[in-house]
Amino acid sequence: MAFGYARPRRIVLVVSLMLLVGLTEGLGLLMIVPILQSLVPGAETPGTLGWLTGGVGAFPLAALLAIFVLLVALRAVAALWQQVEAAKLHARIVDGLRCRAMEALLHAEWRELAAMRQSGNRALLVTTVDRVGLAVQRLTMATANALNLVLIMAAAVVLSWKLALGAVVAGVLVLVLYSGVRRQARRLGESLSASYRAIHARLEETLNGLRLYKSYGREPEALEQARRTFLAMRGAELAFVSQAGRARGVMQVGGAIALAGLTWLAVERWAVPPLTLLPLVAVCARALPQLQSLQDAAQQFAHSRPALDDVAALIAEVEAHAEPVDPGLRPLRLDQAIRLEQVGFAFVGGRAALHGVGLDIAAGSTVALLGHSGAGKSTLADILGGLLAPDAGRVLIDGGPLDAAARRAWRGQVAYMQQEAVLFAGSVRDNLLWARPDASDEQLRSALDRAAARFAWALPGGIDCDLGEGGGQLSGGERQRIALARALLREPRLLILDEATSAIDAAAEREVAEAVAQLKGSLTIVIIGHRGVLTELAERRIVLEGGRVIADA
User: Fold this and answer.
1) pLDDT band for position 336 (50/70/90)?
2) pLDDT value of residue 47
3) Which residue range forms the structural domain that includes residue 96?
4) 3-state secondary structure 82-150
5) Does residue 368 share a domain with residue 288?
6) pTM score, two decimals?
7) Looking at residue 388, which CATH number applies to its domain?
8) Domains: count for the chain
9) In which order are the strands placed within the sheet that holds 352-362?
10) How far apart are CA 148 and CA 241, in angstroms?
11) Which of 126, 296, 345, 425 is a good FRET partner for 335, with 20 to 30 A between their CA atoms?
């Protein structure tokens, strides 16, 4: 899955450079033979080296050394080029995966998103995808090590096929014996993934509750909870470091024993001449760290592989619940009425929120949805706004069905304000233009006037005043009025106010209510709440209880 985000030609280039690095290294090791031969006049090289000593071996020592240096330089250039291209490949894969996951989340059905734990998604988009990048990096490294080993062993075959065969058998045996180590590395990687998810959840809970922790004097408990979570993560990391270190040490000792054994066989049993033995020892000595690197890379890939599985699982899950898109579909337009016919809805997990709701909401009217917490008000508003699709019944806009294909286009005519105004870091202008990037200054001024947010012009720098993170420089009422101006800038046909004044004081609530009162008749307004000044503006009150309409007056 991961390599699907890389251009095929870049993959081919990286693999080609790996082959060039391995080839130049193998040839450089073989150059030792003619160099030694030139230092020992009359020495004969038996077996398969005859072609080499008969050609290159006839060159003077200076030429041989120049060829050797040239091969080393070529290898250095190829290795540098390969590292740069591999880094580009790695970055493209990581960025592609992150964008794919983000795109899948943005285009998923709201029902699916609302049921997900967003701290886990944040952990995945930041930490987990970076670990996928590490997995890709290790896989690339393992490929390079494997190719280098193949070409180095090819050089060993030229020197002595018996010793080369013995080295290959030993290497394969090592990789087979280490399969259990790689499986354990994967289990440790799964444990690390769980630790990262726990850390993100703990940090989000703590940072969101800072006011509460300080008010109750529970700072020490918050610190202790965080410390335990960090220790769990470090335990998972250190377990892998310890495992990798032990595996590396065993391989180094085992490799030294194997090299010593092959050298003894070459001298005592196979009578390999010194002119061949010395390059063979150099080849085997070079192959040993390559084998070690191959095992390390494979082990680290196994450790990071759970991250790739997590990302793939998230993408598959949310893409399976993607909203249908029909670019050619003409948006529904609200000029007459919204009709709900026996609408029913249940959340993920089966908890029913609405039962057989039937309503007609006239265009241009102001309606209040009332009821206790959990009565189904916000769920009904999300269905009216096109965020949720009913499980039963249907929604009609001027007689046209608000089906799956139409909901996305319908949301372009709906403005939504929630309990806590969401403002982004930047200026008032930035926040307004977020809703309509092509808006003129005149349109910005009109939206602010309609939202009773003229105070924005008196801020230091006017509407170009930097509001800080989340609009922290403004009061709650000011934030709500900026959010209302942003909503009105879209020129919506339907405005949904979901407990929009429940988090602000009475004076600010009156200011927002005055702004909404001026909008009555110009668009359809749905107000959700228990009580308050806003709900008093409605000419019609619909009361819900247990997901059913129990009063409509």
Assistant:
1) very high
2) 47
3) 2-189+249-319
4) HHHHHHHHHHHHHHHHHHHHHHHHHCECHHHHHCCCHHHHHHHHHHHHHHHHHHHHHHHHHHHHHHHHH
5) no
6) 0.71
7) 3.40.50.300
8) 2
9) 352-362, 337-346, 392-397, 400-401
10) 26
11) 345
